[in-house]
User: Fold this.
Amino acid sequence: METNGYLDMDLLRFTTAGSVDDGKSTLIGRLMYDTKSIFEDQLQAIERSSERRGDENINLALLTDGLKAEREQGITIDVAYRYFATPKRKFIIADTPGHIQYTRNMVTGASTANLAIILIDARNGMIEQTCRHSFIASLLGIKHIVVCINKMDLVNFSEEAFEKIKASYIDFSKTLNVPDIHFIPISALKGDNVVDVSKHMNWYTGSTLLQTLENVQIISDFNFVDARFPVQRVIRPQSDQYPDFRGFAGRVEGGIFRPGDEVTVLPSGISTKITAIYQEKKELQEAFSPMSVCITLENNIDISRGDMLVKRDNQPKVDQEVELMICWLNDKKMTPKGKYLLKHTSNEAKCVVKEVAYKVDINTLNKIEGDFEVNKNDIVKMTLKSAKPLFFDSYKKNRTTGCLILIDEFSNETVAAGMIL
Amino acid sequence: MSHKLSHLEQLESEAIFIFREAVEQFENPVILFSGGKDSITLVHLAYKAFFPAKIPFPLLHIDTGHNFPETLEFRDELAKRYNVKLDIGYVQDSINRGTAVEEKGLNPSRNTLQSITLLEKLEEGKYDAAFGGGRRDEEKARAKERFFSHRDEFGQWDPKNQRPELWNLFNGKKAQGESFRVFPISNWTEMDVWQYIKKENIALPSIYFAHDRNIVNRGGVLLAESPYNTLLPGEKYEQMHIRYRTLGCMTITGAIYSDADNLDKVIEEVAAARETERGNRADDKRSEAAMEDRKKQGYF
Assistant:
């Protein structure tokens, strides 16, 4: 890897989805192998394991199976994070398993991703799971999908097979809310069009997968318009050196803040001016998403964790009732009209399930009405009522101020992921 | 002005966010300080997260008694510089109490005993969250670790039953007696840490840089001369030009041959390295699932 320019690299987070045996782990292994992100001792370790298992070639999939149970059963049971870098970008991969019972892991992996890779086996074309994975990516607000049509070597690198699958995906994707979709014919096992250009598919003139990952424009995915600053912590040194310092620490979750800007504090509605924005000792001229900073204000107003700084002419919704899509994550089904704890930005509140509107059939995207039992992996539209007002945007507008989780107060487990409508 | 953050700026922002979040959610957090570059980076990030206030929690170092003297010297100096309280747990104390038993054999490692002392100290200090410098790229069991990692009342990790962690919403709720491990630099790679150390000009112990030392080559692992290492028949120490990629006990941490005597050269070397940094750790080589097993029992 080249070290020059490393300090200015960009960061892309992506998730990979596919069904069992479509070569997802092999693809990730291939990406890491061909970008020289695998070390010799790791390679030797998987060579030894492959041999023991009686695999014919080095099984690149073994690189990504971390837990004992997974190696024994040859499946991936939890989200695993992988890292590799090229001189252009650092990549964080959320590697999520594809079996039906693990929808919750895909939701988890997709929640922080900018891009999703969807794998399709060229021999089988689109299957139910392709639709489900694509729908989850779209639901979680991912704006870029790369459809990798894999195992092209097993269909004689046929352009016709590729075009046929591409056409049916394009047709299906009209129902999704994903603005940027790419199609690449690959063979993860042989390495065609993953990092290196395929020698077997001259008819394909587009980018390889790695080139696509390096060049997708993600800067426009950040929201620089709607200024949102949830207060995480009040910083009061009360030291001799800083006797009166009172700063508000948090991360900018939208828009741009500058010293001198007039801001409104929610929920009080009081307005004041920003005097300074700090990153440690450094005073910044502006702060934008996703910077963690400390802001000082002109007036001494009572502000605590959970409050939000916004601009007066551009405020989020303030309401105790929230309509949202949720994915249920827990083995224990949702209690009808149940009470839960919700976490939203730096805020926490008790809430009650007011109404379940409908379930979504994630294979067909059709609504299922009249079935109000919410089980693990179900995706449901519902209304929550919170014990105190929340300041929120729609998830579509802002992925951070538009998301929340529900916690079971008895087990303390995270039971649901919510995307505000 | 460009509204784009580099990957290092994004990783820094994420780590600071995690520190602030944990301090708000837990009553009595502590930084697990190993003395290595990752935990030194962690202290630097904590300092930035709360500036101009002091770091609002102490450092906890588990001293196996087999540390490099340079590590201990650096640790004491760092605690002074950041004006932060240093709490030390001694593995020897656990051995004296009889809660830990020294390994048999010629060159016993106290590496596995660390977990015992650590859990005892966490309980004694009533620490309900411990920040660690663990990174997901280090080892395959760590790749599935959460930022907020729940531990039961015995300090154990249950990898198959972890809480899903979505967006930037971290659930630190727990029952009495349970605790959390928090990993602010989960998403960093070894290269990211080195580049950040350069960018922020963070001071490191001298043994990360190439120097001369008496070394014995034991089965490919280059071990330093120390009072805790008895030579086997036929072995002898030789002076070699080496440096360390990770820091641990002198009994298990292998050096690498190196001429990298400054940060730029170290970074070049890391970029060209063909072995993982834990590749020289005798403790990880014990079995394929060595790390996973130790983590389940409460290891960092």
Notes: Chain B touches chain A through 66 residues (CB under 8 Å).
